[in-house]
Design a protein that fits this description.
Elements: H1 19-26, H2 28-49, H3 61-75, H4 81-97, H5 105-119, H6 122-143, H7 149-230, H8 235-262, H9 281-288, E1 295-300, H10 308-328, E2 334-340, E3 344-351, H11 369-379, E4 383-388, E5 394-401
């Protein structure tokens, strides 16, 4: 049987972003376009203000156009990463090899190289990195014919680091997507398992109710035959038989309605074994008790015949609760209490052991006991309480109404006490 997981406290609601931030977040291209335009303006202003070395061309329309092209590449860095890298790379290559006064295009290459590695095709980003290395070598050789390996390594590192950062971001995003997909599949599997558990329990309960109704119908047939035989000679006996038919018929009709309500799929071959009842609860307790898990039984109130469905449901609940105690309580003592009240039958199973893991998921593997108990209790309009006890251990308490009304807290419900267990 599964134990319910503790409810988590919802995280506080985060503050809503301002209108400007919301407008930028609605489309990443908007922020990139602003970034690219600012970069283009800054590139033009920089080319006009820097001191021109003797071996460089002075500011011209070409140098300004290369700065604007670099800004365009930045603007497209997330919408079209490969195209952005191509534009910025060509602009930087022309500026470097042509000795134009355009200091900022190489920085645009750093940005677009990172963006392509993060948002574009990995294969294309590797090709872009290789092409960048070739262009860097050409530019270095055009400026310094006797370039050293230190110059090459330092410049290569400058362009390689952004690529690795972008590729790392891509890897982490892909991992997050995969983990989210796995979590969704696991949740779907758990939901499917829980649904199958509910369907299986409903089918099993329906089969059991079928046997209860069939037994009641058999009793009605026997009593009707007896009433017919003694109708004239022994009218009192005939009246008693008819009264039995009436009460049995009402009970069978009630069980039939429950059967129709709970049955959701065609059942296979029914289990032909005799259905258990609370008359055999002593045998159940005796067979479940072991040296490491002694079980005691207490009866509160006067035992009496119960509606067959309620009798069966109470037996199954106690049986599943004892199974849970054997699995999870460890060395412990278990106390079973049956309370016969005027309006309610109450079954309680408590232990003083360590209990099950609090986060055991519902419907995990074969442990569908909680599902079955919930179905049985709700079928008869009862209440179910399952959870840890304040003084340690675990408690399963079910209350089933005997008058076919929805179960509510009633002063007539018998009080149960876990006698012999520490509280």
């Amino acid at each position: 049987m599964d134990r319910p997981a503790p409810t988590s406290t919802p995280s506080p609601t985060t503050a809503a972003p301002g209108p400007v931030r919301a407008w930028l977040q609605a489309d990443p291209f908007r922020a990139d376009a602003i970034f690219g335009a600012a970069f283009a303006v800054l590139s033009v202003l920089t080319s006009l203000s820097v001191e021109v070395p003797p071996d460089m061309r002075g500011p011209s329309g070409w140098s300004h156009a290369l700065g604007v092209a670099s800004g365009l590449g930045i603007a497209l860095r997330r919408r079209h990463p490969s195209a952005a890298m191509t534009i910025a790379g060509v602009a930087a290559a022309i500026a470097g090899i042509g000795h134009f006064t355009a200091p900022l295009p190489p920085f645009a290459v750093l940005v677009t190289l990172y963006s392509e590695a993060a948002y574009g095709s990995r294969r294309q980003s590797i090709l872009s990195l290789a092409g960048t290395m070739v262009v860097v070598a050409c530019v270095l050789s055009s400026y310094w014919p006797e370039v050293t390996w230190v110059d090459v390594v330092s410049n290569y590192s400058l362009f390689t680091i952004p690529w690795f950062l972008g590729d790392n971001l891509r890897t982490r995003r892909a991992l997050e997507v995969e983990l989210e997909a796995r979590a969704r599949r696991a949740e779907e599997d758990r939901a499917g398992a829980a649904g199958r558990a509910v369907a299986a329990e409903r089918t099993r309960i329906a089969r059991e109710l079928h046997d209860v109704v069939a037994h009641a119908m058999g009793v009605m047939v026997i009593q009707a035959g007896a009433a017919r035989r003694v109708l004239r000679r022994q009218p009192d006996d005939a009246e008693a038989a008819v009264a039995t038919i009436e009460s049995t018929g009402r009970e069978a009709l009630s069980e039939m309605r429950r059967l129709v309500g709970v049955l959701r799929e065609n059942a296979g071959l029914a289990d032909r074994a005799p259905q258990p009842s609370l008359e055999r609860i002593t045998d159940l307790v005796a067979t479940s008790s072991v040296p490491d898990l002694p079980i005691t039984l207490e009866i509160v109130g006067d035992p009496r015949p119960l509606p067959a469905g309620v009798d069966l449901a109470a037996y199954r609940i106690v049986q599943e609760a004892l199974t849970n105690a054997r699995r999870y309580a460890g060395p412990a003592r278990v106390h079973v209490t049956l309370g016969y009240g005027p309006d309610y039958l109450t079954a309680s199973v408590v232990d003083d052991g360590r209990g099950a893991a609090a986060n055991a998921p519902l419907g995990d593997g074969p442990r569908h006991g909680l599902v079955g108990m919930q179905e049985r209790v709700s079928l008869y309009g009862g209440t179910l309480r399952v959870g840890p006890r304040a003084g340690g251990g675990f408690e399963v308490r079910a209350s089933l109404p005997l008058d076919r009304r929805p179960a509510t807290a009633s002063p007539n419900e018998p009080a149960l006490g876990p006698a012999g267990l520490a509280t």
